[in-house]
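Bumping with the actual sequence this time:
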Amino acid sequence: MATKYSRQREEIKAYLCSRKDHPTADNVYTAMRKRLPNISLGTVYRNLTLLAERGEITRLRIGDGIDHFDYDTSPHYHFVCKKCGSITDFPLTYSNPALSISDMDFAGKVDGHVTYFYGTCTHCLENKI
């Protein structure tokens, strides 16, 4: 089913495209209020959900109970700092060893996997946070 054009949705996508820090829905809402003062938090949530369902953005669930969003839908890994909570793209060549292993004793078909790396980011190490 085709979805009609939405200026709000396009603004949300443009904002996410400009970010590399994987913002939360609240972060997106705060930024959108500056561009579109009448936008509601519900509208932001609905559009983020729709964009994620359509595969136009990626929803990250890193274990902190808060969804984060990534405009880059290409296969890649993420690093999560346990001290400051920052999420960055992890500079490791994306590979599929998990897919090869899972195919060995599994009758189904695996289409992908999610891997998060956790530790301390450079900023926290340098500032001894």
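The tokens above came from a reply further down the thread. The chain has five helices and five strands.
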